[in-house]
TrEMBL record:
It comes from Undibacterium parvum. Keywords: Hydrolase. This is Serine hydrolase family protein. Gene3D superfamilies: alpha/beta hydrolase. SUPFAM superfamilies: alpha/beta-Hydrolases. It comes from the Bacteria.
Length: 188
């Protein structure tokens, strides 16, 4: 099973847990975007869809921040017919941002899609994330049919959060992948 990393705005730098996972874990690749600094939802959707389509095996998505909103848009888009969406067997969504907040740097990602996601999903949030209130992240997790974990005061759960390779996150990823391997394709 392939792990696709889906970074958010500005990509994930070298101290970010996503970058450390990319270096340390097998069968991991990062979805690349044409413009990390000025995201366009349509362009980012096309890049994600193409990457999933080009991957011959099943995938688990590991998204951070704006990558979470991107995956929610992708899963609920009827316009992206290139890809068999059942190929995505699970998603770990970390620190979803409040895309509807005033002056959010990627306004065309708003509103956040809230229909149930068609694959097993785990949402991880921090209780002091400057980009999203914990209660809102919890509501999205419920709407998406996801498991929810709060990891305490870890900010935006990024390179500045002091998580290094984030072993707890890797454990949640391993559980998600094990469940994806043991279950039939989820068709919600």
């Amino acid at each position: 099973m392939k792990i696709l990393l889906l970074p958010g705005l500005y990509n994930s730098g070298p101290a970010h847990w996503q970058s450390l996972w990319e270096s340390a874990l097998p069968n991991v690749s990062r979805v690349q975007q044409k413009n990390w600094d000025q995201p366009n939802c349509s362009d980012w959707l096309t890049s994600l869809d193409q990457q999933i389509s080009d991957t011959e095996e099943s995938v688990v998505i590991v998204a951070h921040s704006l990558g979470c909103a991107l995956l929610a848009h992708w899963a609920q888009s009827s316009l992206l017919a290139n890809t068999d969406k059942a190929r995505v067997r699970g998603a770990l969504l970390v620190a979803p941002p409040d895309v509807a907040r005033v002056q959010f740097p990627a306004p065309d990602f708003s509103p956040m899609p809230t229909r149930s996601l068609p694959f097993p999903t785990t949402v991880i949030a921090s209780d002091n994330d400057p980009w999203c209130e914990l209660g809102l992240a919890r509501l999205w997790a419920e709407a998406w049919g996801a498991q929810f974990h709060c990891i305490g005061a870890k900010g935006h759960i990024n390179g500045e959060s002091g998580l290094a390779a984030w072993s707890q996150g890797q454990q949640w990823l391993a559980e998600l992948m094990q469940n994806a391997n043991n279950s039939q394709i989820c068709t919600r």
